Amino acid sequence: MRRLAGWTTLVAATAIGQGIVPLTQGPGADTEAAWSPDGQRIVFQRERDGEADLIVLELATGEERPLVAGPGDARYPCWSPDGRAVVYSFGHITTTAHQGIPNGYNLFSVPVGGGEPRRLTARQVRDYTPCFSTDGKSVYFATTRELEQNDAALAALDLGTSEVRPLVRFAGTNMGAVSPTVSPDGRFFACAVELGLRANWRLAVARCNEPSKRALVTPPESSMYAPRWSPDGTMLACTGYRLGDPGWGIYLLRLADGALARLDTGPGNARSPAWSPDGRSLVFEGNGGGSYRLYRLAVGEPAFGPVPETLQVEAATPLLKLDFAAGRDGAVPDGSGRGHPAAVEGVLPVTEDGAIQCGEGFAQVAGHEDFAFGRGAFYVRAEIFLERHPKRLQLVVVGDYPEHRLGWQIFLNAEGRACFNSRSPAGDFVGAMMEQPLPTGRRVVLTGVRDAQGDVALLMDGGDLAVGQGSGATMAYGVPTQIRIGSQFHGGDRFLGKIHRLEVGRGIPEERRQGMLTLAEVLDQ
């Protein structure tokens, strides 16, 4: 990397409406701005010819000074709490090695006054969107390390020891966490999470010392990312889009009650807000004039919308409980007391350990209004045993509905990974999948859950919810045609293991409820 001498571009501080002031101009795109702790400067990335440099803007004079420039791609700058250094992500787009830097994006630190950048991480992965802890001893960042797919996790780098520890990691594909931001008191962090195929980005808030204690704080039907904690600790600013919006915009989320306010940023899309240290202004990137430029916006008195209803976590109510050891004469009684026995078709012998041996038949529960879940919460729990993986699709249980014949399922894919899926209103698959193949040679309890917001989760043996998640499963289920056990609804894709027990119910089982915290619970309000 090389550094260039300072140069100057003055931008007239002319308001373009409602307290919005342009800060940059000229060729290229100016994005990902961060305000210095003393409020006098902004650092941002300027993209030209497919690469990005870091620029420092002096707000009092409009002077611009390159901080990191030359070959390579420097992105996502953030200030150290003492204002002396900027940490950023750097890589080379088109080369496997350049100036001794391996392919990938790693974190670097550079003195604000200029100097030789110092490498902080060094792996052929993507480390990006860094932010400092409040005490300046750690850097939180998004990373692809240890992930099989092109997903993202959060990690924390201890600057004293160079140790990297995992912070937030979701199992399964099409899932990730990016853009961490730490609360002013250092107790909490917020980030953007994506929980499955076709899911929107949502904001989550977690405890720094217990990252698993986290709550989703934006609705699944909206897309929200790039949060930044306000200096007074009361709000998050973020990039967002809700149905009916003219484009991407800047939103504020009030942490006291979860209410949202969309700020007026003028024409075009607006993204990536960052707070001034006094909390009175935001800098953001907008493309109302063509390319993205930086603008300053006075926050004023935001017009917050209605306070969202707190998601009620309905306790589980079993509607079907089958213990296959009790099966006799082609039928399995329903232990829930609701009167939904399963009829056995074909050969399903009961083994010595009290399970049905699948493969030559199936069990069927007739459709009933008990299983008309609408858009409400429901769960499916199966205790199964598999001797080996046959490397093909196997259906443990499927809810066959007029709305969709594969309405919900627990199944094993060809890799032996257990999956639970539900459906979107359009019938699209919304799945939660285990990261590793199902353990063989022992009993395993799989619990699939869809909550009232359309989030799905798959848990194994009552463990943590990181086994798998997805979002957007808001199909309204009416009365099913059948619940099919041991095969697909048409008889194919038979499960080749044993099924000991099956339970289907309304509401949220206890093992899942432990992971469904509200924002107030996370913040101890």
Can you describe what's shown?
This protein has 525 residues and is an all-beta fold. It folds into 2 domains: 20-298, Neuraminidase (6 Propeller); 317-513, Jelly Rolls (Sandwich), CATH 2.60.120.200. Helices cover 2% and strands 44% of the residues. It has 2 helices and 41 strands. Strands 28-29-31-40-33-34-35-36 form an 8-stranded antiparallel beta sheet, with no helix packed on it. Strands 27, 30, 32, 37, 38, 39 and 41 form a 7-stranded antiparallel beta sheet that branches. A hairpin with a 6-residue loop joins strand 18 and strand 19. The protein is elongated and about 90 Å long. Mean pLDDT is 89; it is low at 1-16.
Short description:
Helices cover 2% and strands 44% of the residues. It has 525 residues and is mainly β. It folds into two domains: 20-298, Neuraminidase, CATH 2.120.10; 317-513, Jelly Rolls (Sandwich).
